[in-house]
């Protein structure tokens, strides 16, 4: 299967547009957006552009013209379709990772993974409830994103729980980075199989804003609440 691709020029143009004044610093950067869309495309239900696009671009963009608005919509949908085609075909695709602020040569997995975790929460279905008896398997896969995003470490410190030594942490991070590309496809395949099972549980709580806590309404972070594996 041939995977749809964006040209380098189109990718650069989308990157520039997302950073433009039209979005008042509310639009996702390409790395966050790619993680976000990978999750939105991989879950137990189909997420329409009318749901994910305002979350990706911010609530009220101020476009210079209708032509600019159309260009943004066209490019971001092509970006979405490129990811969708790669996931559907099980094909490798270029992961958009910036360098860290401290070291441009060191890839910043945290932002990408934060986008993925957020994208896992935007639909009506709660991933871990929808996974049912397979929730522990899903939680194990998601741990790659929780670790690389820094959420696991942050939660351990907040709750005054033991954390890995520097050597152990470096080893765990290196392993997670190695597993990272394959895990994206693993979770996509997981949900493709699960879609043949009974319909996912629906949330009664409101949908999330970008900076809101876990979608179940507990007030806890996603990893501490719905993202925690079952015993």
How would you portray this structure in words?
There is one protein chain. Helix content is 53%, strand content 0%. The chain is mainly α. The chain has one domain: YgfB uncharacterised protein family PF03695 (Four Helix Bundle (Hemerythrin (Met), subunit A)), CATH 1.20.120. α2 (30-42) crosses α9 and α7 (135-148) crosses α9. The model is unreliable at 200-205 and 207-211 (pLDDT under 50).
Helix-strand layout with pairing:
Layout: H1 8-18, H2 30-42, H3 49-57, H4 66-89, H5 109-119, H6 127-130, H7 135-148, H8 151-158, H9 166-194
Helix pairs in contact: 1-4, 2-4, 2-5, 2-9, 5-7, 7-9
Keywords:
231 residues; mainly alpha; Four Helix Bundle (Hemerythrin (Met), subunit A); 9 helices; globular
| CATH-assigned fold name | Four Helix Bundle (Hemerythrin (Met), subunit A)
Q: What's the helical proportion of residues?
A: 40-55%
Per DSSP, what share of the residues sits in E-state strands of 2 or more residues? Answer: under 5%
**Fourth-level CATH superfamily:** YgfB uncharacterised protein family PF03695
Number of strands: 0
CATH architecture term: Up-down Bundle
Quickly name the level 1 CATH class: Mainly Alpha
Structural class: mainly alpha
Q: Can you count the helices?
A: 9
Terminal CA distance reads 40 Å
Summed over residues and divided by their number, the pLDDT gives a mean of 86
Report on the biggest sheet: none
Low-confidence stretches: 200-205, 207-211
Tell me the Rg in angstroms.
18 Å
Which of globular, elongated, flat, extended, rod-shaped describes the shape?
globular
How is the quaternary structure best described? single chain
Q: What is the N-to-C succession of helices and strands? A: HHHHHHHHH
How many structural domains? 1
Pfam families: SEC-C, UPF0149
Protein name: YecA family protein
Biased composition (Basic and acidic residues): 201-210
Region (Disordered): 197-231
